[in-house]
Every structure is written in structure tokens, then in C-alpha cells.
Design brief:
With 87 residues, the chain is of the alpha+beta class. It has one domain (15-84). It is built from two helices and two strands. The chain has helices at residues 2-26, 45-59; strands at residues 65-72, 78-84. The protein has a two-stranded antiparallel sheet. The chain is elongated.
């Protein structure tokens, strides 16, 4: 029974990850704080909240990932970095 569940998870999780990444791609925010917490001039707090929520959704697939956030790339877009627990 345990092996069946594990096999099912290994089959389903990649699809969930791809779909979630696609959703997050569409909801990127363009006004997130940089690594030092400074906000760009066009910052919108709703965008920052949306960015955090989408990173959390993208990284929070079950208990398999922890949420490691990084904010602004050169285009001032929100980016999410996820890592497996324990890494």
C-alpha cells in the first residue's frame, strides 16, 4: 500500500509542479522589494502580497518543499526559489 502511494506521488507531483509554475508565471508581480527590502518607485503592496502568495503556492507543494523566496530579477519581476526540505 505504501509503495503504491509513493508511486502515485512520483507520477502526480511533476504534473502539479508544471501546472503551478505556469500559474505563477502568469501572476508575476512587477513591483517587489529587492534583497535589502527597498521598494522600487512603482511599488504596489498588493503586488508584493500577490508575489509572496504565488511563491508560497509554487513552492508549497505538499510538505515536500520549503518556501525560499528571492525577489527581484533585472526586469523587476518576482522570482521564486524553492528547495527540498533539508537541503
Amino acid at each position: 500500500m505504501h509503495n503504491r502511494l509513493l508511486t502515485l506521488l512520483l507520477i502526480v507531483l511533476p504534473f502539479v509542479a508544471v501546472v503551478t509554475a505556469e500559474i505563477a508565471e502568469h501572476y508575476r508581480c512587477y513591483a517587489a522589494p529587492d534583497h535589502y527590502g527597498k521598494k522600487p518607485g512603482n511599488c504596489n503592496d498588493d503586488d508584493i502580497t500577490g508575489c509572496k502568495l504565488n511563491c508560497g503556492m509554487m513552492c508549497g507543494l505538499g510538505i515536500f518543499f520549503e518556501f525560499n523566496s528571492a525577489w527581484v530579477n533585472p526586469e523587476n519581476k518576482c522570482e521564486c526559489y524553492c528547495s527540498f526540505l533539508g537541503q
